[in-house]
Amino acid sequence: MNNYFSAERSKTLGLPSVAYCASELNLSPNYFGDLMKKETGKSAQEYIQAKVIDVAKDKIFDREKSISEVAYELGFKYPQHFTRVFKQRTGMSPNDYRNLN
Q1: What end-to-end distance do the CA atoms of the chain give, in Å?
Q2: Domain count of the chain?
Q3: Which residue among 54, 72, 76, 84 is buried most deeply as judged by most CB within 10 Å?
Q4: Could you report the per-residue pLDDT of 65-98, keeping only the tens digit for each?
Q5: Closest among 62, 53, 48 to 93, alpha carbons compared
């Protein structure tokens, strides 16, 4: 997951999928999902979304970028989708989170 964002694959490939993460580890998506559930207690999709939001939290503090630019960098097709997912995960909008600091 770290390589996915550091190599900026999200700009060209979009949000990381369970199938993509599994293939990077040479695992089937089902086996990868089972391993994630066993190790983290979360589904693979939940884990991936949590990681995306963690990366987003860091990127949001770069005030030279708009929230829309951050959304596109992370692989979201629509900034509104990013805002909705971010708010579901953190309880606040990206703008509110940015304004905390």
Answers
A1: 26
A2: 1
A3: 76
A4: 999 999 998 999 999 999 999 999 999 999 999 9
A5: 53
Tokens 């990366």 locate to: 55
- What's the CATH code of the domain at 24? 1.10.10.60
* Cα dihedral: 57, 63, 66, 68 (round 10): -10
What is the rounded radius of gyration, in angstroms, for the C-alpha atoms of the chain? 14
Give the model's pLDDT for residue 7.
66
Q: What pTM does this model have?
A: 0.80
Angle at 59 between CA 57 and CA 64, to 5 degrees: 135
Tokens standing for 78? 């629509």
5-9, 42-46, 95-99: which range is least confident on average? 5-9
Instruction: Tell me which residue range forms the domain holding 16.
Output: 2-99
